[in-house]
Amino acid sequence: MHLIVDGKPIDIEADPEMPLLWALRDLAGKTGPKFGCGIAACGACTVHMDGTPVRSCILPLREVQGEITTIEGISTDGKLHPVQQAWLEEQVAQCGYCQAGQIMSAVALLDEIDNPSDEDIDNAMGGNLCRCGTYPRIRAAIKKAAALKTAGI
């Protein structure tokens, strides 16, 4: 199977029913996406497929179409993505386990809406769970990332 992951073509020999998450982690060496629940309920496994956030824990390889971007691939210039920068500045992470999925959902949101409202953030981030409860910091980081992105940082 031929995939494009983080801008690079890779060939994977795997059962077409294998979830994308396991192909990414075990075969492609991308450890950013995490296994959280296995039923697409928590968002820890979120990656982008052609810019759209998808839950890689339930997406079989046979259904993968387009380019896959993991958290390892959201910055192409060697600098932090504005969302990653905002996450650090707002000290979002506590345990950090859910953060790759949270960041991937936030990146997709800001790619769609430059200055999201609280309702936009709630709608986009509602499927990403944080057991540590850092939701207020996540919201603040998304708003800061929107400002950083607008400023060209």
Kindly list the characteristics that best describe this protein.
153 residues; alpha+beta; Ubiquitin-like (UB roll); DNA polymerase, domain 1; 5 helices; 12% strand; globular; Beta-grasp_dom_sf; iron
Task: Give an overview in words.
- By secondary structure, the protein is an alpha+beta fold.
- It has 2 domains: 72 residues, Ubiquitin-like (UB roll) (Roll); 69 residues, Orthogonal Bundle (DNA polymerase, domain 1).
- The protein contains 5 helices and 5 strands.
- The protein has a 3-stranded antiparallel β-sheet, covered by helices on one side. The chain has a two-stranded antiparallel ribbon with strand order 1-2.
- The longest helix has 16 residues.
- The chain is globular, with a radius of gyration of 15 Å.
- The mean pLDDT is 96.
